[in-house]
Amino acid sequence: TAILSQGGSAADAVTAMFFAMTATYPVAAGLGGGGICLIADPSKGLQEFDFLPRAAKGGGAYAVPGAVRGFYDLQAAFGALPWQRDVAGGEAYAASGFPIGHALSARLANAQNSVRLDAALAVEFMNEDGTPRPEGAVATNPALSQTLAAIRLSGADGFYKGAVAGEVMRYSASQGGAISPSDLSDYRTTITAPRLVNQGGFSVALPNAGTGAGAFAASLFANAARSADPEGAVVAAVRQSLASFGISALPPDLGGTGFAAIDRNGQVATCAMTLNGAFGAGQSAGSSGVVLANSPSTPSGIAGAFLTPVIARDGDGRAALAGVGAGGPNGTAAITYAILKLAAGQQIGRPGDLRSTGAAPMVTVNVISCQTVCVALPDPGGHGLGAATSE
Fold first, then answer.
1. CA distance 359 to 366
2. How do 308-313 and 268-274 pair as beta strands?
3. Is cis: bond before 361, omega within 30 of 0?
């Protein structure tokens, strides 16, 4: 809300949220990962920014990071504040410290065996006896702060070139990875038009079919929309869609999260992020503070198929709902259910109006609903946070 109150756009707000979460929620939002954002602007139209973690040309277990490039391009196209302002908050959290939140604490407990094996993550999040630090304990990450400073000062080049890129490549090579200079310098955000479907008089933007996320969301939405019982239809559609994609089992935590913002000028931005596993590969790249994501070729690499940012607009082009499903098929199911409920004329004004995913502690759905006034609704089955501002 501070970014919006200072005249920032929705694009600034989601950019600032991401960089803050690289410090405060590295289980799912990290410089080593990537994601998908949708943005609707009253004057510039509707666009999709795809910057998922990609496989290195030479293979290996680690993904080529896309997040910094993606948010740099998004903010350059739709931001209203200086880039430095959007990055500074995350840099400050990493340098001065932040209390471990409830959601992070819960997911940290589940991922502790992996976290304990990485020296940098262990120093930040584990006690000397090897147990996870408790909720409320203050954590810092000076190495990440230095990397964020480079990004603040030099934009995407501060990450994909120079000292930070060198650390990422050296560490990857030392562990049998294959991230090369060209993998980093050649990374480009894919900017396209999202898929549009009409549902109950609303124009609904979903990820396009060029991504696994778009393909799964389209299949789920099509299967669920055929029924007059949205909740029952979504449950059945998840099974049908997973079967059609040949998916029989999933890791317990795919390292996903999401967030959305609407500004006073009517710009809407919604982003779904992943590290392809809780804390990604569980490996910090040298002295960079960057937690690397798992390659899409690993079992957790399927996480990108379940990133589902959506924007629903009424006949006048005003946002009626902006939200994200992430972290697995339950996230896509929950956001699909919210859209079907909106299309049926039902109220979405409280967290309980969303379909609880039952996947706590993971935050798998977050929604901003604007049926009368805009309200921010976190996942009723997880530990999310929603906030609204009149600015």
1. 13
2. unpaired
3. yes
